[in-house]
Amino acid sequence: MAFIPHTSADVAAMLAAIGVKDIEELFAEIPPSLRVRSLPGIPEALNEMQIGRLMTERARADGTALSFIGAGAYEHHIPAAVWAIATRGEFYSAYTPYQAEASQGTLQLIYEFQTMIARLTGMEVANASMYDGASATAEAALMAVRAHRKSKSARILVPTTLHPHYRRVAVAAASNQGLKFAELPYCTEEGIIPVASLAKYAGEDITAIVIAQPNFFGRLEDVDALTDWAHAHGMLVIAVVNPTALALLKAPGEWGTRGADIAVGEGQPLGVPLSSGGPYFGFMATRLEYVRQMPGRIVGRTLDAAGREGFTLTLQAREQHIRRAKATSNICTNQGLAVTAATIYLSLMGPQGLARTAAASHARTRELIAGLTRVPGVRLAFTGPCFHEAVLQLDRPVAPVLKALGSRGIQGGLDLGGYYPELGNALLVCATETKSSADLERYRVSLSEAVQAARAA
Amino acid sequence: MSNVPADLKYTKSHEWVRTLVDGTLEIGITDHAQHALGDMVFIEVPEAGRAVRAGEACAVVESVKAASDVYAPVTGEVTAGNAALAAEPETVNAQPYGAGWLLRLKPASGALAAAELLSAADYQKVLEAEGG
């Protein structure tokens, strides 16, 4: 069925009204060399029955492996009510409605989401969401340059313990806007950024430093000391945080004596399933004094002419439909459906539920590490506390071991060789509350067998 | 009818310019501009020491209706932004030619003579042409 409501008579009438012969003429200014006329490699369209069958077969081929991969995407239990409510017709739209205030329920949900993110991060104000954690990090860097008016350098310190994909996205999104990124090395014994390594930047004009907590290795950075050092040297602090971990760890708003200036992160752990990498959503919160430099939409609570409570989009003068090219960013909508699920997830879990999820994930990860490091040839790469991930070092290449685990129905983790070659045969593993002790034991036995098989080969 | 003080210079983009006794220029937006924009909610003024060129956006006035750039009428170096407006942006509405000034700048050598500034009478004509 066609989803375009215009009849050919409608189209002809519209073209006649603007004095254009046919629709092609509207695209005349695009050089022919830029037009794509065919899409090689794209197969013929399938009907609903055919696509349903194809997807079922693909899903069967994927199977339901026991996953110990984290690395920015985390498997958590999602209460059944979350998606039952999120997919109700009233919510089931990815967009903020164009006539936003006509949809008070959607606006109230976003307002509640902002409140939850502000409380989790310990910041004063949060926006209606970003595309994902990586783009939120890039937007935070751009925002820091706008907000920190005394700094002229647009230089951002980025630790190598920040997710490698986030670093790449930040460079891709912001370097053409004049931002320069300097990478901070980590301590190879502890897997964190040593505060002493910042000393070489003392006295330089640096706009902001990014601090990931927990970092990509699962390790906990010394956020208080890093934040205080950055503030003492005239930098803003951008926190990149895991929302589940915030139920237990100190909120960015409380880091050091002044707290972080901008907090961002990936929202996927809050009720969004692992699904081939998306759709996810990012979150962003900041101090009230920087709210006009914050990208994205913000919903506010107000009173209508009759004195009744209502919700409205606010601070829109920063946005592109008013500021055009000078808008704070080109983000005009948000990841509405994923945010809807996250808001329902958080309201069902409550602060205690989220804290229990975080504590259980931490406990499972410690149990996992204790088991796996009993396997000969497997050691923990870094000393010091972690959240729900850790880096293991193997005495043999990681890829064949992961393949052997895969054939036993276990996704054993992320091979770090391509990202951190200096760590040797390094494997990033993660366990959340979804893993039972039997699951962890199954991984340990399978790893032991896989390592022995590799040794024999 | 907008208030257009005779002793000030103006721009077509609705800024006014006052020459202070030390030769520094004080700059704000006109009564017409503040009225057209409506109630101010946020004013962003430049930092002292910033070099600006004539026609360059150097401040932002945000009202309940819109956020608009304010353009430097003359090339020079900013000597002060009006910090009091951060807490009381409505001053721009109440006293556009007085306490609601936005910035002061020291004109570059010869810049004042080169600037295309309007007299009060000429600015009045601009407003009449715009239907104001």
Structure report:
- The complex is a heterodimer of chains A (457) and B (132).
- By secondary structure, chain A is an alpha/beta fold.
- Chain A has helices at 8-18, 23-26, 48-62, 80-86, 104-121, 133-147, 164-174, 223-232, 320-323, 336-372, 398-407, 437-456, and strands spanning 66-67, 125-126, 155-159, 180-184, 208-213, 236-241, 262-266, 282-286, 298-303, 309-314, 378-380, 389-394, 410-411, 414-415, 426-430.
- In chain A, strands 2-8-7-6-5-3-4 form a seven-stranded mixed sheet, with helices on both faces.
- In chain A, α4 runs antiparallel to α10 (336-372) and α6 crosses α7.
- The radius of gyration of chain A is 25 Å and the shape is globular.
- The mean pLDDT of chain A is 93.
- Chain B is α+β, with helices and mostly antiparallel strands and 132 residues long.
- Helices cover 19% and strands 32% of the residues of chain B.
- Chain B is built from four helices and nine strands, in the order βββαβββββαβαα.
- The longest helix of chain B has 10 residues, at 120-129.
- Chain A binds chain B through residues 149-150, 292, 317-318, 322-323, 326, and chain B through 41-42, 44, 47, 57, 62-63, 65-67, 69.
Oligomer: heterodimer
CATH architecture of chain B: Beta Barrel
Determine and state the CATH class of the largest domain in chain A. Answer: Alpha Beta
Name given to the CATH homologous superfamily of chain B? RNA polymerase II/Efflux pump adaptor protein, barrel-sandwich hybrid domain
pLDDT below 50 for ≥5 consecutive residues: which ranges of chain A? none
Q: Count the strands of chain B? A: 9
Q: What structural category characterises the helix and strand content of chain A? A: alpha/beta
How many discrete domains of chain B?
1
Which architecture of the largest domain in chain A would the CATH scheme give at its second level? 3-Layer(aba) Sandwich
- The termini of chain B sit apart by 7 Å
How do the SSEs of chain B run, as a string of H and E?
EEEHEEEEEHEHH
- The helical percent of chain B reads 10-25%
Share of helical residues of chain A: 25-40%
Major sheet of chain B, described briefly? 6 strands, antiparallel
Trace the largest sheet of chain A across and list its strands.
2-8-7-6-5-3-4
* Number of helical elements of chain A: 12
Number of helices, where a helix is a run of at least 4 consecutive DSSP H or I residues of chain B: 4
Q: Radius of gyration of chain B over alpha carbons?
A: 14 Å
Number of domains of chain A: 2
